[in-house]
Amino acid sequence: MQNLAIAIHGGAGTITPASMTPELEKAYKQALSKALNQSYEVLEKGGTALDAVELAVVLLEDSPLFNAGRGSVFTKEGKHEMDAAIMCGRTLEAGAVAGIRNIRNPVRLTRAILEHSDHVFLSGYGAEEFARKYQIDFEPEEYFYDQHRYKQWREVRDTDIFMLDHTEERKFGTVGAVARDANGDLAAATSTGGMTNKNYNRIGDSPVIGSGTYANNKTCAVSCTGHGEYFIRAVVAYDISCLMEYKGYTLQQACNEVVMNKLVKFGGEGGLVAVDSKGELALPFNSEGMYRGYRTSGKEGIVAIYKS
């Protein structure tokens, strides 16, 4: 089996043992392990990198623990607006959505856009119409209700404050995955519910091809999680690919330069998961922690949360 590899993330930020109960830590690790191992099985059975990253993100979207899909945070209006993207490294085809509501799995919609549309990026009502055409599942508002998320929103809804994810700590809620399949093809996918109390239909980096999500068989596949405004301005995902393509950096060198140097210099906090054409993985982050997991050919999967 040739260099199968997958890496996933469930958000980054100030995530420390002190901010976590043993029960919650166990729940996070179980959810990460489930997404990691089931998506790796797709690769093991000869499935494509696109199939693997889509499934990984679907499983994370279905968990209320992560700020994507079912666990999405509340907007200023008390609604849920979700963003997502997926990209194929072999063809450079991509699908992306922003500001969508009531879609059970936004990543499923991005895959439909990639396969059935001449467009890349759809938003709001139009994206939802496209979802109906291709029979993407919708859910009522109650499906996305979470008591913890609601409490976060209630604390700031009458202010102009927007929160990254939690009130107790800085956490950037996004889920994502990257993979290399048996054919050597790469893919990346990312999904998010954005920021608590966000206003004006704010859109982060997750659905922006080249900022939060990118895949190119020549170089790498990248899925980011962090303070989206900084990741957009730094064009993080494409910058890593460019350093590899034009300057000959290894994946790890490119990730270190962008995440640990460039982003830090102007205040960008977060991390990413990435895989290169050989199946090498990188999971750098400049925050206290990042929910993450990875697995490669012939090895058991590993999940982790804290810096150590």
UniProtKB/TrEMBL annotation:
One GO term of the biological process aspect: proteolysis
SUPFAM superfamilies: N-terminal nucleophile aminohydrolases (Ntn hydrolases)
Annotated positions for site Cleavage: 173-174
Hydrolase recorded as keyword: yes
InterPro entries hit by this protein: Ntn_hydrolases_N, Peptidase_T2
Keywords of this entry: Autocatalytic cleavage, Hydrolase, Protease
A GO term, aspect molecular function: hydrolase activity, acting on carbon-nitrogen (but not peptide) bonds, in linear amides
Cross-referenced Gene3D superfamilies: (Glycosyl)asparaginase (3.60.20.30)
Residues the record marks as active site: 174
Residues at which substrate binds: 202-205, 225-228
Domain of life: Bacteria
Keyword Amino-acid biosynthesis: no
Annotated protein name in UniProt: Isoaspartyl peptidase
Species, as recorded: Pontibacter ramchanderi
